[in-house]
Structure formats: C-alpha cells, structure tokens
Specification:
This protein is an alpha/beta fold. Helices cover 32% and strands 16% of the residues. It has one domain: 3-Layer(aba) Sandwich (Rossmann fold). Helix 2 links the parallel strand 2 and strand 3. The mean pLDDT is 95.
Length: 144
C-alpha cells in the first residue's frame, strides 16, 4: 500500500501508468494521486491511462491541472469510455486486456486505485496490477 511518505522515494522523471475503478477513486486515493503529481517534474514525466469513466478520468483531470503530459490508451469497446480531451497522444483502440498490458509496458510505475483494498479475481484493475507484479513493475496501490 502506498502512503504519503512513499512519494519521497519516487524519482521526479516518471512515466506513470494508471489503473482504477470505474466508480471513481475515494477522496484519500485522489489526494495521494495529487501528491504524486505534485512531486514529479511535469517537463520530464507523463501519465498513461485507459480513458474509462471513473479513476482514469479523475487522473486525467488531475494531470492536466499539473501540466503533466498524458497518453491515452482507449478501449476498443466504447461503452465505458470517457473520451478525455487534451492528451498529447492517443494510441490505437485495443481490447481491455491488451490495452491494460500496454499501459503497464509503457510506464515506470503503476498507480492503482482499486475499488477494494483486498485483491479481487474479477477486476480489470486487479488483473492489471497482477500483470505489473508478474513483470516486475512497481505498483503503488492507493488505499481507499
């Protein structure tokens, strides 16, 4: 679990991947995300997200507020797509699993805001986190 003191261990030049619940982050998760975004150097960092409603949208708006460049990895199925604007790059649409792995592959760290703090089997957020762990990518789970 990520806590506020962990931000001091992060470099300022990061590619940050985002995964999170479509129900949106808790106030605590959004606060911790902003702490991370304030810490990084926006001229050397970027944020990648999957353009879904909920936490992706909240992360997008927070990154825009701190002038952190954004790359969008949109889903092939547009049902839960947020259609965020203002990104520097929009990747090709992909099915959820492929898209989520592409976000992890592109980032230095994965910031995760799951709906539940305990691991869930049928959750895209948790599947993305497991993939990151499997390939050795640092995962910063923001507690609810």
């Amino acid at each position: 679990m990520f806590n506020i003191d962990d931000v001091y261990t992060l470099p300022q030049d990061l590619v940050i991947g985002i995964t999170g619940t479509r129900k949106g982050g808790s106030k605590h998760q959004l606060f911790l995300l902003r702490v991370i975004l304030i810490h990084v150097d926006s001229t050397k960092s970027s944020l990648h997200h999957g353009d879904c409603i909920g936490f992706d949208t909240e992360a997008h708006e927070a990154a825009r507020g701190w002038h952190v460049p954004i790359t969008i990895h949109p889903p092939l199925i547009p049902f839960n797509r947020a259609w965020c604007r203002g990104a520097i790059k929009v990747m090709d649409e992909e099915v959820y699993g492929v898209r989520n792995r592409a976000i992890v592959d592109a980032c230095d760290i994965l910031v995760a805001a799951p709906l539940r703090d305990k691991q869930q089997v049928k959750s895209g957020t948790w599947m993305t986190m497991r993939y990151a762990w499997d390939i050795g990518k640092p995962v910063h789970q923001l507690p609810r």
